[in-house]
Amino acid sequence: MIKLQFFDWDNSYLDVEDELNINSDIADFLVEHVPDIQLEATDNQFDLDNNWIFWLSSINEEKAIKVIYDILVSMIKSDSRMHFSINLE
C-alpha cells in the first residue's frame, strides 16, 4: 500500500489542489496520470485540515511511487509551504 501525505503544519487549512495548480481533485488527477493506480482511502492526521493522507494501490507500487513523486515535484508552486511524503506501508 502506498501512503501519500500532503501537509503544511504551519497553517490550519491545506488546499492541495491550489498548491498544485490543478482544477480537479488530487485523487482523480493521480488516477488519471499514474498508470495502474487506484485510490483505496483518504485520511488525515489528528483530524486536522492541514494535512491529507491518500492510501493508494498499484500493480507495481515502487514504480508508481517514482511517477507520483516526479509529477508532484514538478507541479508544486515555487512559493508553496506545502510538503509531501510518499512511501510504502
Could you characterize what this model shows?
- With 89 residues, the protein is α+β, with helices and mostly antiparallel strands.
- Helices cover 31% and strands 30% of the residues.
- A hairpin with a 7-residue loop joins strand 2 and strand 3.
- It is globular.
Brief account:
31% of the residues lie in helices and 30% in strands.
Fill in the keyword field for this structure.
89 residues, alpha+beta, 4-stranded antiparallel sheet, 4 strands, 30% strand
Estimate the helix proportion, in percent: 25-40%
Give Rg in angstroms: 12 Å
Strand content: 25-35%
Biggest β-sheet: strands ordered side by side in the sheet: 2-3-1-4
User: What distance separates the N and C termini?
Assistant: 6 Å
Q: How many strands appear in the DSSP assignment?
A: 4
Low-confidence stretches: none
Secondary structure tally, helices? 3
Q: How are the SSEs ordered, and which strands pair?
A:
Elements: E1 2-7, H1 16-20, H2 26-33, E2 37-43, E3 51-58, H3 61-75, E4 83-88
